[in-house]
Amino acid sequence: MSRPFYAVNNPNKPLARLYSTARCTEFNAWMQLIPEFEEDFDLASEECARHYGQSAHKVGQIFLALQRVIFELPKLHAVLQDHWHLDFPRIIAIDAALSKLGPHPDSEVIEELDEKIAEYLTPRVVNQHLPSSNRIGRRVREMVHEYDDRVPVTDPRPQRRMVKTKLTANSSSLAVEAPHEDIQKAEDCMRATADALGVSRAEAMLQVLTGEYESKKAETKLVLFSPKGIEGAPAYLQGFGWVGPETVERLREGATVIDADEVANAETASYKPTDAIRAFVEGRDGTCRWPGCSVPAQNCQLDHRHNFDEGGPTSPSNLFALCQHHHNVKTDTRAMYIVDPISDVIYWLFEDGTWVSDTAEEGPIGQGSKRWMQTYGQKLVKRRQNAQEKAHELADEIDDYYRERAKQDQLEQEQRDIIDELWVDDIKLLRAMLGRGEFSGEIPLPGHLNVFLILEAAQRLGLDFEAADEVAPWVRVHKKIVEHERHENERKILEEAEAMAHELALKILKEKENEERGENDEAEEELVKVPQNPEDPPF
After folding, report:
1. Ramachandran category for residue 437: left, alpha or beta (phi over 0 → left; psi -120 to 50 → alpha)
2. What is the pLDDT of residues 96-105, one digit of tens each?
3. According to the UniProt record, where is the region Disordered (predicted)?
4. If phi over 0 gives left and psi between -120 and 50 gives alpha, with beta otherwise, what is residue 73?
5. CA atoms lying within 13 Å on the CB side of residue 281
6. Distance between CA 441 and CA 432 in Å, rounded?
7. Could you give the CA distance from residue 539 to residue 528 in angstroms, rounded to a whole number?
8. pLDDT reading at 13 higher than 60
9. What Rg, from alpha-carbon coordinates, does the chain have?
10. Is the pLDDT of residue 135 over 70?
């Protein structure tokens, strides 16, 4: 049995071999260009962009994506080097999806995601169609949701309604934001109105909003795919995507519940499938089953692989979603397909003799998504159980902490009470010693360490004594402190006295200078006599 490979690596196709080599060469070349951590990222991107012919933003995306694959995703890196099937748009899509985990994701989470992404992008059958960058990004985002605690348990703003208008020079647009079920109901009404008027949905909406025509009523059908037997898990709302538990509970009110396991083997005698069968096929396929086609399954036709007129049953095992274009290709016998009933792998055979395989990975109940949805829901419930257990453990730890804290507080209070009693005893002892004048000999060690207060009290009274050996170090320290304070006081007094003496000396000198200046002025006044009469001589 030949080794599985993607169609982009088909060894029998020269074009596939050429581009496999090109991807390998390009990847290895860019590995040499990844800037060091201490380099200026913007300048490095700008320089490479000038020679690469792309924007600096694009180059930056390549740098970041390669950095993640090479240094954080070793298993995916190994798969990539084994097949050389991923180009830069697909690698960038993986990095962008993983960026939702934040700048410092948990290493264990990254390790698990690395394993899952590597498994997802490892071919399982021969000549398998490689998913597009959009599909890869969407699948990795679904994987990230499994570990990302920022995914809200309740849907944010579930009842929000908003109308947005955008005006331009030639045309304008009107957008409405509302809960899923309201938008679906409006869409069904507009579709029914458009069919009745024979116009487009946009024209029908304009006529209804301007009052030219009354909207037709329509029956709204919402299809919700949720994991079986797992409460509180997210679910897939057809046409919208994954929704949280709050929306799930709201949509389940009055809903018809269909067991997918039972519908998988259901069959109807008519050509047209029942609503349950159609919902199952749409949920299994997700999109048109033509390799690479992204038309949603709910907008596709359900094709009888074995023609109904030739005895083919109307059952999920014989029905597959094909968009109108690819359904026509199949009807024109330009291509045909066969399906592996166990793996659900579809093999497309073309009139030129070539073929390609594809897997049902996109539908919410397809082989891949079904496994993911089960594990996701189970992990979500398990995570909540673990969170509850952890909360109980934390509560027990908090209780233990406060119990120990209460014991410690009680012990500290008892110590404070003992200290207070000892301090009172010390004061009583000092008073008795002062009263009797018993300061000869040794002083007993006070029970309280604030011996400074006792020593200071004795010092202020001018008492001198010999301290016991246990108290001697404290006495010496206290004496040094008192001596230092005395020296500081004496220094301040001397500085103030010198300043006053200097100021007084300056004052005396100034007064003496003023007196001498006054005597000189009087002497000059006696020597010079000015005549009162101009005709009198000056002598």
Report:
1. left
2. 999 888 888 8
3. 509-539
4. beta
5. 29
6. 15
7. 11
8. yes
9. 46
10. yes
What's the angle, vertex CA 202, arms to CA 197 and CA 207, rounded to 5?
55
Q: 25 near 57, Cβ under 8 Å? A: no
Range with the lowest mean pLDDT among 259-263, 329-333, 477-481? 477-481
Residue that wins the pLDDT comparison between 230 and 121: 121
Instruction: Kindly list the domain boundaries of the chain, sorted by start residue.
Output: 7-147, 258-365, 439-524
The pLDDT, as a whole number, for residue 430 is 55
Question: Tokens standing for 361?
Answer: 């990975």
304 membership: H or E segment, kind and range: strand 301-304
Number of Cβ within 10 Å of residue 139's Cβ equals 23
Q: How far is CA 301 from CA 277, 325, 328, 425, 460, in A?
A: 13, 10, 10, 100, 107
- H-only helix segments in 148-200: 180-197
CA distance 73 to 118: 9
Angle of helix 41-52 relative to helix 56-72, nearest 10 degrees?
110
Pairwise CA distance, residues 334 & 391, whole Å: 62
Point out which residues pair with 322 in neighbouring strands: 301
**Which residue has 């005006």 as its token pair?**
167
For residue 416 the two structure tokens come to 């404070």
Phi, psi of 530 (to 5 degrees): -100, 125
Beta-strand pair 355-358/346-350: antiparallel
Among the residues of 34-87, which ranges form H helices?
41-52, 56-72, 74-83
pLDDT digits (tens, 9 = 90+) for 51-76: 888 899 999 999 999 999 999 999 99
Which residue from 242, 278, 459, 246 is spatially nearest to 372, judged by alpha carbons? 242
Q: Which amino acid is at 246?
A: E
If phi over 0 gives left and psi between -120 and 50 gives alpha, with beta otherwise, what is residue 226? Answer: beta
What is the SS3 assignment for 208? helix
DSSP-based three-state secondary structure for 271: coil
* Helix or strand holding residue 498 (H, E): helix 472-527
Q: What is the pLDDT of residue 443?
A: 47
The residues pairing with 175 across neighbouring beta strands, listed in sequence order, are: 164
Task: Report the distance separating Cα 17 and Cα 104, nearest Å.
Answer: 38
Query: What is the residue type of 286?
Result: G
The yes-or-no verdict on residue 372 having pLDDT over 50 is no
Residue-wise pLDDT for 458-499, tens only, equals 555 555 555 554 445 445 555 555 666 677 777 888 888 788
Residues pairing with 338 in the sheet: 347
Other CB atoms within a 10 A radius of the CB of residue 278 amount to 19
Residue range 421-439: mean pLDDT, rounded:
53
